[in-house]
């Protein structure tokens, strides 16, 4: 028995006999999945194309994204997750099943038990939202599942000082919201969410192009441009070639837009991020603020890839901004550490507050 206990502790028996542990980052724009035992991960858009008259799913993930703006009116592109909340349980289950299908060659066909799923949920999750996660797991037919506190996992994924007596501040900017959390000695001391993210940036740029050039452009055009908009505002000017529909003539038209002009639009978005950070700082105790200024701020999420945003925040707050190589995958990076250490795992499990 002692030998078996040691094998469990070392993860040897779990890897060879039991089903894999799968972490699922269910984002509003992208689903990311990671299998611990094979160290494999995938990501795909969290979208479904649904034929409304028959309520049948025509496409999932990348194939559904290709249909945005191109499909007829009887086909709806559905976002089953918004603001980190499950909107439609059945549709989310289809998304996860799509990920399972992609992993089919990696799953152990001789496993004695079903996969153990790990999800990331916000610490502010209500009881109604929590019940939706439970229902999702039952819908998937899994028995073993664990919910992690997403804020603590983000700290683990972006910082090495989880249990130290220093303070860590995370600014996580994603598809449809920004979350700001402050963690001290492995404990969450502040957590705030704001409805400001990639969708806000995209709409601002689309609105500017519409009003300045009478041109309607699609989401895909903006998404292709966004990663250089802020950064190029501080470098040599160049021009974007943008194609869309002329709002006056109703015909296709191509224009050239200066990077400096778009940089001004995105700078307004950056100012909004700075403002909500300042508002959050008002709630941080002075003692912790000193730690943050000394240790810096950790910037995560897909919008963190706008490198110029890092420069703006550093200049505004006079402290260093840390950013990992893959800031949009911070939850997967964090869960890799958790699944290797039972002691940490017990500290980051979501604990209902109601």
Short description:
With 354 residues, this protein is α+β, with helices and mostly antiparallel strands. It has helices spanning 2-9, 12-17, 62-65, 89-102, 127-140, 150-158, 198-213, 219-225, 229-232, 259-281, 286-295, 307-317, 330-338, 342-348; strands at 21-26, 30-35, 40-45, 48-51, 56-60, 75-78, 81-82, 85-86, 116-121, 145-149, 167-173, 178-184, 187-194, 215-216, 239-246, 252-258, 297-300, 321-322.
Question: Which helices and strands occur, and which strands form pairs?
Answer:
Layout: H1 2-9, H2 12-17, E1 21-26, E2 30-35, E3 40-45, E4 48-51, E5 56-60, H3 62-65, E6 75-78, E7 81-82, E8 85-86, H4 89-102, E9 116-121, H5 127-140, E10 145-149, H6 150-158, E11 167-173, E12 178-184, E13 187-194, H7 198-213, E14 215-216, H8 219-225, H9 229-232, E15 239-246, E16 252-258, H10 259-281, H11 286-295, E17 297-300, H12 307-317, E18 321-322, H13 330-338, H14 342-348
Alpha carbon gyration radius: 22 Å
Which bin fits the share of residues in helices? 40-55%
β-strand number = 18
Please indicate the percent range of residues in DSSP E strands (runs of 2 or more): 25-35%
The backbone outline, from C-alpha atoms, is: globular
- Report on the biggest sheet: 5 strands, mixed
What would you say the CATH architecture of the largest domain is? 2-Layer Sandwich
CATH class bucket of the largest domain: Alpha Beta
CATH structural fold name of the largest domain? Nucleotidyltransferase, domain 5
The name of the CATH superfamily of the largest domain reads ATPase, nucleotide binding domain
Give the count of structural domains: 2
Distance between the first and last residues' Cα: 39 Å
Residue ranges: pLDDT <50 for 5 or more in a row? 7-17, 105-109
Mean pLDDT: 86
């Amino acid at each position: 028995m002692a030998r078996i206990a040691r094998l469990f502790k070392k993860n040897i028996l779990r890897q060879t006999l039991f089903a894999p542990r799968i972490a699922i980052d269910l984002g509003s724009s992208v689903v990311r999945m990671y299998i611990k035992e094979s160290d494999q991960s995938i990501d795909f858009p969290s979208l479904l194309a649904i034929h409304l008259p028959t309520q049948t799913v025509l496409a999932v993930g990348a194939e559904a994204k290709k249909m945005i703006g191109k499909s007829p009116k009887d086909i709806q592109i559905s976002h089953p997750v918004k603001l980190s909340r499950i909107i439609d349980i059945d549709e989310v289950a289809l998304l996860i099943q799509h990920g399972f299908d992609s992993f089919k060659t990696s799953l152990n066909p001789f496993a004695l038990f079903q996969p153990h799923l790990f999800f990331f949920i916000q610490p502010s999750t209500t009881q109604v939202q929590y019940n939706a996660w439970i229902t999702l797991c039952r819908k998937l037919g899994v028995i073993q599942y664990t919910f992690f506190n997403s804020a603590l996992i983000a700290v683990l994924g972006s910082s090495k000082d989880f249990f130290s007596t220093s303070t860590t501040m995370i600014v996580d900017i994603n598809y449809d919201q920004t979350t700001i959390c402050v963690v001290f000695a492995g404990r969450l001391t502040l957590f705030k969410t704001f409805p400001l993210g990639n969708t806000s940036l995209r709409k601002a740029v689309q609105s500017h192009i519409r009003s300045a050039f009478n041109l309607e452009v699609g989401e895909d055009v903006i998404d292709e441009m966004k990663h250089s908009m802020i950064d190029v505002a501080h470098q040599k000017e160049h021009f974007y070639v943008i194609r869309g529909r002329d709002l006056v003539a109703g015909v296709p038209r191509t224009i050239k837009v200066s990077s400096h002009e778009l940089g001004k639009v995105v700078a307004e978005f950056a100012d909004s991020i700075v403002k909500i950070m300042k508002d959050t700082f008002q709630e941080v105790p002075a003692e912790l603020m000193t730690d943050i200024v000394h240790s810096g701020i950790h910037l995560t999420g897909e919008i963190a890839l706008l490198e110029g945003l890092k420069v703006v925040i550093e200049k505004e707050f006079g402290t260093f901004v840390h950013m990992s190589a893959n800031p949009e995958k911070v939850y997967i990076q964090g869960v890799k550490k958790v699944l290797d250490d039972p002691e940490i795992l017990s500290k980051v499990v979501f604990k209902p507050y109601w």
